[in-house]
Amino acid sequence: MARAASGIVRRAWFVQQVNDSTVAGAEGFPNHTLVLNNYKRQPEVLGTGTFSTVFAARVISKVNIPGADNGMPVAVKEMPLSRRGTADVADIEIKALAACASQRGVINLFYVDIIEQAQGQASPGDEQGDPPAPEQILRLVLELCHSDDLYCTIQRHGPLEPAVARQRTVELADTIQWLHDNNIAHLDIKLENLAMARDNKTLKLLDFGHALLWGSRHGYADFDSSNWANSLAPTTLDCADQAPPPNSSPLCMRLSGTERYRAPEVQMTEHNHGCDPGSDSAPSAPHSGSKSNQESTQARRYCYDARVADTWSLAVLFFELRRGYPPYERHCTSKSDPRFDAYFCAMAGNQWARIWRNHDKIKPRNSIPQAQYTLTSSEKRVFEQSFRMEAHRRPTLHEFRTKVAALDAATSDAETDRAMQAPST
């Protein structure tokens, strides 16, 4: 009962926050004006997620937004606030998108409101015969991107041409660097959360429900994490009391994102007691080991630098853009476990010659020329450096971007080698 009451109070606070923002004229949403009943939802469903459904819609009364006209297509993201955790995820996403209003690589948020929707007929056992209380639905009106996200594009047409894959990766790296410079980590970078703008020129980053915002820039306390974050290494905490205050630094202790994009140190947090709001799954027991070993593992709490986690995810995404499939599926190296992933096991063992032999046997799909599909030796070295298990031995985001840009600028492996000299070798 206490937990349920806490959830009700949390939802009530969130509803009041959104309503206050509406009354105040969307303070905190630069260059955007809230107006009521200015669009019509269409039956087309653009996508679904754990907490939301996204519909197509069109503006039916002119909005005071540059370039908006009657009939302008938009996307409406609907989130039922009765679902546990929705208010927390929505709070994170709205704050993040509001802070990113000036960043062209992030989807635009135009409008936020809450509607009440009838839940159906009264229950037969209801003596009063009163209909159930209406359900509160949060609606985010967003910029409508190209109909396909990058995952659908690659599934339909195969991997991108090498030069285009490198260009998109560099473009996304610049967007992520801007986020990090402004104390935001996305923590769910994947093909499904990327789409081209309708002009087909700008790559847009979507879905900030897993994002981490930290520091006084976003209204939180500041914590001096220089001794931790500069090492870029996953940190083991003996007890929760050692952890910095939530949202005071880029250090994070929750399981975020999708497994095939998670850095090893992020996956370690599945052993933490409890998950922070916004994680996509509850923590599970370790995959292997004795009962005493599991108890010892669960007595610890793990944290990681969210900026480093984003960089690992970007490297996975670059691999997918080039090959059309991920470098691994699961974080499991135990052969006795049904979740065992041979590719991740080989990565953990630094068995790159074996990995590349297996990848080179995979034939391209959709009649893609073999020469276009094959990774160069320079590209392979970038992946070998980026997928090291030790976080402090990987390239930083800036170094990774520089290496990928050098791949595109150089005309031969020898020239690329000279351009790629970096301290992470």
What does this structure look like?
Helix 4 packs antiparallel against helix 8 (about 305-325), helix 4 runs antiparallel to helix 13 and helix 12 (about 375-385) runs antiparallel to helix 13. The chain has 2 domains: about 1-145, Phosphorylase Kinase, domain 1, CATH 3.30.200; about 210-420, Transferase(Phosphotransferase), domain 1, CATH 1.10.510. It has helices at about 1-25, 85-100, 150-155, 160-180, 225-230, 265, 290-300, 305-325, 340-350, 350-360, 370-375, 375-385, 395-410, 415-420; strands at about 40-50, 55-60, 75-80, 110-115, 135-145, 185, 195, 205, 210-215, 235, 250, 300-305. Mean pLDDT is about 75; it is low at about 1-10, about 20-35, about 120-125, about 230-235, about 235-240 and about 275-300. The chain is about 35% helix and about 15% strand. It is α+β, with helices and mostly antiparallel strands and about 425 residues long.
Label this structure with key terms.
three-stranded antiparallel sheet; 15% strand; Transferase(Phosphotransferase), domain 1; five-stranded antiparallel sheet; alpha+beta; 2 domains
